[in-house]
Amino acid sequence: MLKSILLVGIGGALGSILRYLITIGIKQLVTISFPIATFSINILGCLLIGILYGISEKNNLGNSDLNTLLIVGFCGGFTTFSTFANENYNLFHQQNFFMPLLYIASSIILGILAVRIGYKIIL
């Protein structure tokens, strides 16, 4: 159990750090009202988790330490639902109704599609 907790913590820390660095980079390059940094990170995270699940299934890894580190830890730390929810709340609060609806719909649809694509890349 302690080993799993450490693996999740290490993976989560690395995922969070990478998310932070990518967010800074995107915000320096792109200035639009759409929350492109969180959107990009979450879609990339969906693609990555699809790839990792595909690798796990293909190699019969099940509940391995590698899955705990990468899927639960890294992907869990890399993607962020709370930021997604807060950004949508702020957009609604600004009386901007189209943008959060677009953000929500595109995140869900493209997120699921990215998982599927990642999974199919491997299998």
TrEMBL record:
GO terms for cellular component: plasma membrane. The chain crosses the membrane at residues 5-26, 32-54, 66-85, 97-119. GO terms for molecular function: fluoride channel activity; metal ion binding. Na(+) binds at G76, T79. It is a multi-pass membrane protein. Keywords: Cell inner membrane, Cell membrane, Ion channel, Ion transport, Membrane, Metal-binding, Sodium, Transmembrane, Transmembrane helix, Transport. GO terms for biological process: cellular detoxification of fluoride. Na(+) is not transported, but it plays an essential structural role and its presence is essential for fluoride channel function. It is found in: Cell membrane. It comes from the Bacteria. It catalyses: fluoride(in) = fluoride(out). InterPro entries: FluC. The keyword Transport applies. The keyword Plastid does not apply. Fluoride-specific ion channel. Important for reducing fluoride concentration in the cell, thus reducing its toxicity. Belongs to the fluoride channel Fluc/FEX (TC 1.A.43) family. PANTHER family: FLUORIDE EXPORT PROTEIN 1-RELATED. This is Fluoride-specific ion channel FluC. It comes from Faecalibacter macacae. The lineage of its organism: Bacteria, Pseudomonadati, Bacteroidota, Flavobacteriia, Flavobacteriales. The gene is crcB.
